[in-house]
Records
---
Amino acid sequence: MARIEDVAARAGVSAGTVSNVLNRPQAVSPKTLERVRAAIAELGYLPNESARALVAGRTRTVGLIVPDVTNPFFADLANGAEEVADTHDVIVMLYNSAESTDRELRYLGQLETQRVQGVLVTPVDLGGGNVLALIERGTPVVLLDRGTGLRDLCSVAVDDRAGGRLAATHLVEHGHRRVAFIGGPLAVPQVRERLDGAREMVDAAGGILEVIEVPGLTVGAGRSVAAALAERPPGERPTAVLCANDLIALGVLQAATRAGLRVPGDLAIVGYDDIEFAAAAAVPLTSVRQPRHQLGRVAADLLFEEINDGKRHSHRQVVFQPELVVRASTGVQRG
Amino acid sequence: MARIEDVAARAGVSAGTVSNVLNRPQAVSPKTLERVRAAIAELGYLPNESARALVAGRTRTVGLIVPDVTNPFFADLANGAEEVADTHDVIVMLYNSAESTDRELRYLGQLETQRVQGVLVTPVDLGGGNVLALIERGTPVVLLDRGTGLRDLCSVAVDDRAGGRLAATHLVEHGHRRVAFIGGPLAVPQVRERLDGAREMVDAAGGILEVIEVPGLTVGAGRSVAAALAERPPGERPTAVLCANDLIALGVLQAATRAGLRVPGDLAIVGYDDIEFAAAAAVPLTSVRQPRHQLGRVAADLLFEEINDGKRHSHRQVVFQPELVVRASTGVQRG
DNA sequence: GAAGCCGGTTATAACGATTCAGCAACCGAC
DNA sequence: GTCGGTTGCTGAATCGTTATAACCGGCTTC
């Protein structure tokens, strides 16, 4: 593969000039510029990034570690981050930790030996143990959607409590007074916050919020809860459920329909995340949407700010507001 | 950040010895080994990959470009590839082309300037135009799940025709003689092959296969087809549908149930891909499963074979056999 | 006692780019 | 015709690592 010297020889100039053509073309005369460019094209020359990184002391890459690539939330977020990185001439390396601390640790290590400029990461363990070591050794890090508790770090997140309030307010305004919150484990901050927000509004309306904790945010969990709810006499059943994510909501929808409950007539449903399937469900789902793409963009902005400002950078925590998308599963005004 | 010289100074040896500790510890005396390792730990030294790559003339990375990271098929495939890469001490860089030729081209370019050892890619355009340039300049490439037409390349894929046969045979054995195939665009080789396989078996059984082409493999497409089918008088309606993927199948399931058709009583449904939602659907879906993980592993194996064998490597096309997962949507034996 | 060997170590030369001081050629101005 | 000032290019040093040849006591071996 052609090196810069080969190009230089072919164009009859020195290597330094070729480098100038590549990096500061305005410092080269039009005539040689053309000659060198021709040589580059003829040889199919591509600069060696390793050599560049070595002399520059930094690579042109940042890392992005998400807990689940198959979740559209993170795919959109990744796109947003990439757009911003692009404007900085930086490549985003994407990794899927799959919620595994081990994988996260491995990837962080890889990114560090690769000397990436910075890392965007949704930490698996909320204390951010793996991440702290990186930071101490000087790699800029921005936290995504989790671990906002860590004050001396940049982070972006969505206000889950506000999301809970949004969903609950919507139900209350539709006349619901018996509402169930389905989600879990409650130890997950995201779930907890959504619950707290919901409780706040239901309480304020003088309603009753029943909390049904489930082991995971899955379709299966939603189905078994709905099956149990359907068994109750109508008077002891909530008229609406607020689910911690759309998967649970879809499960509830399936099992409830199956058991003969009509949605939203007998049971209104609100989901969370607004995944693609939410709109495509048998009864399109009302859901809380998060500004995913924007989240990625701002996270990347913060990261580059930190990279460029160096020591005199002050960390910021950005919190986005979610938005309610109303569809058929909560029906029309009631009561 | 600490360099190898810093470690050497601290341990009272030369840089060469530190390098030996890292790369050929058996060539170093136990005493100095220990001293050097201690120094490494104390300084938190991490070798600079750019420098390593520069002298080695090759990086320790390969690229993986998939058309849709959110599709579990590719996520599993990526995991398989990564496992293999791990045993070669190589990092997998993951990219999402999102079916965009532009993005694919950009990523391929990035990978090439990064001097990756090789690339695994599901080409967006089936001719593989973008990919050919890479290959000509000497980067080993293995094609994933597409573009198997290109003979002088390594590739892995799943036998879609066999998948179609598998699904159709299952329906025929359950007594179905009026079957509809729903999928499209038919120009997509995957879809076409599945259809051909299905036709083969339905024809052999003396049945009738109706082809319903849809613009895309989406839930919405499935729903509108099912709505139309439900309008027909029972005698003119197929008793079973074979869908080109699970999303269509889920759409059909929803709309059919909605219209009062019972699944599988009035309409049996077979999907394709066996995505997670298939098992979690209102009526769990019979579907054709592909050995996704294995696909990734073998693709990576082929790539490393090519990387290590160099010129005297002969390209291979590996084709996997799919597997039918029977669930409730095709019910019990009929007729 | 000289020659050869051996494990363990060091010094040195790459790898492919960028940067920067320095130099030649040319410019208009006096 | 000489002088400062550009402009455009070259040559050398440099980044952090690995590979390799050379070295060096200490030990056999004849």
Note: Chain A has a mean pLDDT of 92.
---
Amino acid sequence: MAGKKKAAARRRGRGLTHDDLMTAAARIDPELRRRSELLWDDRTLPTRGPKPAVTPDDVVQAAIQIADRQGLSALTMQAVAATIGFTAMAIYRYFPSKDALYDAIVDVGMGRPPRPTEPRGDWRAEVARWAHAKRAMLCARPWLAELPFVAAPHGPNWLGWLEALTVPLSTTGLSPADIGQMISIIDGYTRGASDTSISLARARARGESDASWAAAVGADLGRAIGDPRFPRFAAVLTAPSDGQPRTMEESFDFGLERVLDGIEHYVRASVA
Amino acid sequence: MAGKKKAAARRRGRGLTHDDLMTAAARIDPELRRRSELLWDDRTLPTRGPKPAVTPDDVVQAAIQIADRQGLSALTMQAVAATIGFTAMAIYRYFPSKDALYDAIVDVGMGRPPRPTEPRGDWRAEVARWAHAKRAMLCARPWLAELPFVAAPHGPNWLGWLEALTVPLSTTGLSPADIGQMISIIDGYTRGASDTSISLARARARGESDASWAAAVGADLGRAIGDPRFPRFAAVLTAPSDGQPRTMEESFDFGLERVLDGIEHYVRASVA
DNA sequence: GTCTCTTAGTTTACGTCATACACAGTACGA
DNA sequence: TCGTACTGTGTATGACGTAAACTAAGAGAC
């Protein structure tokens, strides 16, 4: 490994390198490292002893099924074990802790990203396709957004989604550093602007009707109407909806187009 | 109350009205309604019986203090009670459930929004000020982002933040319905794009060093480098950083300007 | 002033959770 | 064949949210 001075110089001039990251990785908390390795390393089965009755992936699938059907609060080690036909403690032969299991279901639960088609010139359409896919994925598994994302180990599917977004952005002619910025913008908007839909999806998964969810949200927002502290927001709430009502998906789409307008403006100013 | 036909016609033509929302509110789940009322109604103390030793706000402050100092997982009824000098069960005299306490600390924890200055023409600067304030708030209390936001009752501070954002947007000349869209975009971007910083803030609150957080994140992202499945994203990771390195705050700011560019473009096309 | 009834906080208890530890049964490699 | 490494189980522990029954406090009725 290069000396400290060299490494620092490299960092200043060239940004994050493989060596830099691996150097950092050496200092990682052992438990986190273990959790991360579980996501990446092919597990080589020991030859001695009884054969495991199931695979780690069976455990993950059972856990995901429970979260999908009954929500994150129903996801207990006992419930996972019962689904498989084990006692709770047997799960610990597959994952060292519940957090490690969470890591696995986050990555597997995200699923494969939309297939990164080869660059075809229309980066806006490709990025929009990606954003819709991500939004749909988050709504299909609303429990994903309940887990603290970024600190958890990022698995192959996670990076796969980022790669799939990078592909169309690479055709814009932006510098790699700028592309990194655009990834933050698009992913940030997609996640943040999907929150309301995710909340609705969560209510649905709990077996509640759309109407009861709307009632709860409407009742709270409705407090603004007539309250002298929130005059302008009340005006927004009671505004006519300009023609046909917008679904949440259309709303998301409209906002995405504004965000992409902003990005396109930058691309034009920056590449030309 | 007006007949069903009239109400439906009104809804189609005029968007969400006070009556509509209040009608919906009548159908709300009783427990949620109770939780919501706790956030809004002035609590009138009974005259009979012993005086309560503390106020509900004392309980909320104790809970917030624990979450701030030790994170959400340390926030137990026993811990809150111990801070006050009670046993756990006494807390239930102030809040009917832990979820109701969560509602309260979410709203109080958000704090007052930045003061909505009277419209001064520069809506971009005002909106940016709002976004920075919201981001700073979320980073100062990273446990807020761990709670499922939207489904919980929205209290006065929550609406206050929305009002504060609506004020500068109202000076753009956009229709109220369009302003509602812009609110979604800006709030969505702000929340989503702050996630990484919030995660770092959470690590700090746990007493971890910035370096160890960076090591964990770097180790995971670093797996992309050299992996044939993520060639383009790896290129982004290893890219030179074009001059001085950007802090996360500068990154957020850069993205916000792109988003505001997109909104401004729409304003110009739509108002002119 | 005494009695009564409402309310505040405590005690005890229950069911559930993650998980530690010791064990029993299993099947490969020697 | 035997030892040993491994799988899944049984049992236990301490923490959690909260239900129910309790004790004690204090204002109004007489």
Note: Residues 46-53, 86-87, 89-90, 93 of chain B lie near DNA strand C (CB under 10 Å from a C1').
